[in-house]
Design brief:
With 193 residues, the chain is of the alpha/beta class. The protein is built from three helices and nine strands, in the order E-H-E-H-E-E-E-E-E-E-H-E. The two termini are 22 Å apart.
Amino acid sequence: MAISTWFSSATVSVMARTLGPGRSLHRDPVTASTVTAGADLVVVAVHAGTEYNTEPNTDQVTAAHTLLASPDIDLVYGHHAHVVQPLQKINGKWVIYGLGNNIAAQETPVEGTHRGLLVRVTFSQDSTGAWTTSDIAWVPSLQNPAPPHRWCSLTAGTTCGSPAADAEALADTTHAVNLYGANTDGAHPLNHP
């Protein structure tokens, strides 16, 4: 059996928790009750990061490693930086550090804030009943900040802004996604969302 789901900066998470001082994921009652209640998969949304910085900060990286060390957590995805951040495989599971902006009236004139990601994650169940990520694919996007606002896939074969601007956005987004080796761990762009 396989389940595919899309994540974007507009996704509502299955579960989001903030770990404060003295809290351990292994003692977290929400995580434990979610699994005990019969959840097949647990996805954690993290609102963290340094705005406008493509590289995840230390808190993001530490949180991802801590969360994905738990056998109860299957995927972590983040938002807040307003720019695309890397995907990374940790302990056989994935973190999507930052999805950028997909649908936003981002007025801040900062490079990269009109770029985003859609990420399709496919989970497969093996014969023992365990779930793993069997595929992770991403779609780079660009939004036109001027009316009429328009979302555009950079891999769909259409021109979003101009050929030069599209090529630059695609190159920058690809670099950000693969900053921590996502491409060598199996993440790949999806040409037709």
